[in-house]
Design a protein that fits this description.
Layout lengths: L4 E5 L4 H15 L4 E7 H13 L8 E5 L12 H25 L5 E6 L5 H8 L3 E6 L3 H15 L14 E2 L8 E2 L11 H13 L1 H5 L3 E4 L7 H6 L3 E3 L22 H7 L6 E5 L8 H14 L3 E4 L16 H4 L4 E4 L4 H5 L4 E6 L3 H9 L4 E3 L5 H12 L3 E3 L10 H13 L1 H18 L4 H14 L1
Parallel strand pairs: 1-2, 1-4, 2-3, 4-5, 5-8, 8-9, 10-11, 10-13, 11-12, 13-14, 14-15
Antiparallel strand pairs: 6-7
The structure holds uridine-5'-diphosphate.
The site of uridine-5'-diphosphate has 18 residues, from helix 1, helix 12 and helix 13.
Length: about 450
Amino acid sequence: MRNTHILIIPFPAQGHVIPAMELALNLATHDFKVTFVNTEFNHERVMKALSETDSVPELVQMVSLPDGLKPSDDRSDITKLWGSIFDVMPGELMALIERINGSESDKVSCVIADPTMAWALEVAEEMGIKKAAFSPAATALLALIFSIPSLVENGVLDSNGQPMRKESIQLSPTMPLIKTSDLFWNCMHDEVQRKLLFKFSIKIIEPTKLAERLICNSSSCLESGTFASYPDFLPIGPLLSSNRLGKSTGYFWREDSGCLAWLDQQPPHSVVYVAFGSFTVFDRNQFEELALGLELTNMPFLWVVRENIIEDLNNAYPTDFKERMDRRGCIVSWAPQQKVLSHPSIACFISHCGWNSTLEGISNGIPFLCWPYFGDQIFNQSYICDYWKIGLELNKDESGIIRREEIKNKLERVLGDEGFKGRVLDLQEQILNSVREGGSSHKNFDDFLSWIKD
Ligand code: UDP
């Protein structure tokens, strides 16, 4: 019998590709045929990283489509990338589906797209294919996007997304407040970009509503108020590589597993893990201050310093820092983060608060020190610090720098107060229960599988 064939289309950023790949692998283990559609640019990176780690994506077929930009174009310019994708990729996807359907024995039965790629749902609609959306970020943010038209209509936001009067927005009485300063489109540095990001956010609302199922990489224990107010949003997460057997794929960089052996040498609950996801970049002053802050803590640390995190990386460390920290610190360019966070030596996570990092920290019962940069990270910080109370915010001084003393003091506070650890362990238990047999995410995922098979 022919397997049901599913296409999965993530947004081309690392924090979207990883959970979408986790979803793909989960579906493949349930006997679906799964094709994962990266952009050509990311496909090359993923395949290169895979070849360097000697593993192959056995379960999922990897294909790619052009994103419309030149290889040399700057893809960290999100609005430029997004605009090009909207123009070019719908036609490319349609051609791909036609190619697959052209074969005797194969036919695409379902398209699952990231809401930011909701144009793919329009393609599926046009071609008469089942469609679902998969949200990889905090579900409250999807709720915020869906609420934009009414927020504008009620005069809370102006037509460019700028707050008209209130300091915070509450989408429903059971949901946490969203500070207007945390609206993710306002993270862009100039006004044109802010307007564009707001415009794109509006543009995905109607196509996303075409989805017959809207599944979210979240758990009802994390965002109970949101799921109560938006019953069509179905939590199926957290999707973590530890929830299933087998290797992961979808990473843009080769991971340096050597740090796991280094962690084995450290006492339990002694190491600070420091990582800022795939996008964040540092300026020289802040980079140096972080290095000196880690030195000041006197604790062992594992620090992920991506090659592109700062210009001229080789000259960015304080003088003799690496020599001084040779025994106490381990620096890698990309870590096997989920394995790191589950290591018994980890005590605290200094994080940029990306949603995946947030889920991964909670799933391993690790308290946070929050260092968000932009986009949804600032909102996720509010969840961590104000709502779940499992971490502390690192504050900048008047010159906009997080100082070394602030890092040391907050670390001592978070580790010195058992409340943070107690609350995160409690949340860990709930979140892991939700993906076990009988849990709410597990049940929603089972229902989703039945719907696809139907
Ligand atoms: N990650 C990793 N190794 C690293 C740093 C990050 O594997 O050294 C993974 C991390 O586990 C997470 C993803 O990259 O799954 C980053 O996603 P997140 O949403 O936290 O942040 P983003 O990169 O989107 O800002």
